[in-house]
Amino acid sequence: xxxxxxxxxxxxxxxxxxxxxxxxxxxxxxxxxxxxxxxxxxxxxxxxxxxxxxxxxxxxxxxxxxxxxxxxxxxxxxxxxxxxxxxxxxxxxxxxxxxxxxxxxxxxxxxxxxxxxxxxxxxxxxxxxxxxxxxxxxxxxxxxxxxxxxxxxxxxxxxxxxxxxxxxxxxxxxxxxxxxxxxxxxxxxxxxxxxxxxxxxxxxxxxxxxxxxxxxxxxxxxxxxxxxxxxxxxxxxxxxxxxxxxxxxxxxxxxxxxxxxxxxxxxxxxxxxxxxxxxxxxxxxxxxxxxxxxxxxxxxxxxxxxxxxxxxxxxxxxxxxxx
Length: 323
Ligand code: NAD
What we know:
Bound molecules: nicotinamide-adenine-dinucleotide
InterPro entries: AKR, AKR2D, Aldo/ket_reductase_CS, NAD(P)_OxRdtase_dom_sf, NADP_OxRdtase_dom
Protein name: NADPH-dependent D-xylose reductase
Pfam families: Aldo_ket_red (PF00248)
Helix content: 25-40%
Organism: Stachybotrys elegans
Number of helices: 12
Keywords: Carbohydrate metabolism, NAD, NADP, Oxidoreductase, Xylose metabolism
């Protein structure tokens, strides 16, 4: 089974359904990536912060060596971590990430969060995480998003990234980016599920031709894995009456309904699982349609409930970035 593609403003085609790599354990990661290629995934969504890019690269290298896929058929996404926003740090870390993946360009490279933190030498700690001392101290860098975006554009000019984009930006930051971008962000990757629908941000992206990638399509489920109280307290989306009812009506699983809710509106999705049968099931989320009245029912489930923010992971002082 293959995913349809979406044409980005950069001119490149991006698979609409990809595979998420956050929380994929190091010891099983290479095999998981290999199995995902085998299941038909061509887009892989990684990041420095996931701490598994080397293993992802091993899985990809094996899949290419075994003839399952060619490099040019893959769409590899990675992200710039906050401690590498200083202009002179962007290219060196991108080169290191490419080396970990055993590739020489990213199909898409994203600013992970619009937050610049003080540089942490990768030889001291990698991935660096949010804290300067690895425990609790937050140190901001004075680098602006505009300066970092300029360095991201440099990656395209040097052939290290084909397309560049952003993640976890809200409307104000995006409006600002569009004022100075010589290369416009091709995609915005955001938390998007029925409990966090962000309709105005989606309208802005549509108007500006920015492709949206939805992450954490299953809402709280992905965050229970990181032991988040807020996620444990929320009603699981896959067991929600509306979602379960629609799954029965359309003869699909609740997870397919949640993924189709995004793909039907033209957004990309990047679900993650370690189970091959579920990989295949998740990939199959573009071949049926949900009636408009049912899409409207899902629209009424919005709680503006965001799971992925620093203050949900640790006692964050000075990191109220979605405030
Ligand atoms: P997800 O929404 O994909 O949920 C993952 C959880 O759902 C896992 O526990 C998995 O076992 C379970 N699951 C997957 N498919 C299932 C199915 N069909 N039936 C039942 N359970 C199923 O969660 P996620 O990992 O939070 O997000 C997906 C990807 O998005 C990440 O791996 C990462 O690549 C990306 N992401 C990006 C950011 C960012 O800041 N840019 C943040 C979070 C996630």
